[in-house]
Design a protein that fits this description.
The protein is an all-alpha fold and 118 residues long. It has five helices and no strands. It starts with a helix and ends in a 9-residue tail after the last helix.
């Protein structure tokens, strides 16, 4: 009986740790996304609305923002693979890059000829 109780306690502890890790991952992604969107908005506000394309320095600055976002998302995913669902466990950095590049913001900025080599 004591062994069963310990086993159940261990399983419950593992489940609680798993749930906490998934919650930690979700909070990390939320924080990373918030910071990215805040930095992107600040960058976009700094642009001249009449500007047809970005200067080399502006493109470098924006690509640095996007690159940091991708890196942070990948690190958070990689750090928590064992607690994520199967689809997320096998996510590659390139898949994250593809998702970011297909986002509405990146599609909107395509008109400014932004091409980040991520």
């Amino acid at each position: 009986m004591r062994t069963r109780f310990l086993c159940l306690f261990w399983v419950w502890g593992m489940s609680a740790a798993h749930a906490a890790s998934v919650k930690d991952y979700a909070q990390a992604v939320e924080k990373i996304s918030y910071e990215y969107h805040q930095q992107s908005r600040e960058f976009l506000r700094s642009l001249n609305p009449q500007q047809q394309s970005l200067t080399a320095a502006q493109q470098l600055e924006f690509c640095h923002i996007v690159g940091r976002y991708v890196d942070q998302l990948y690190l958070a995913t990689d750090k928590n693979r064992e607690v994520l669902d199967f689809q997320m466990q096998k996510m590659t950095r390139q898949e994250i890059v593809d998702q970011v590049k297909s986002s509405n913001m990146m599609q909107l900025l395509a008109s400014k000829n932004i091409n980040c080599n991520l």
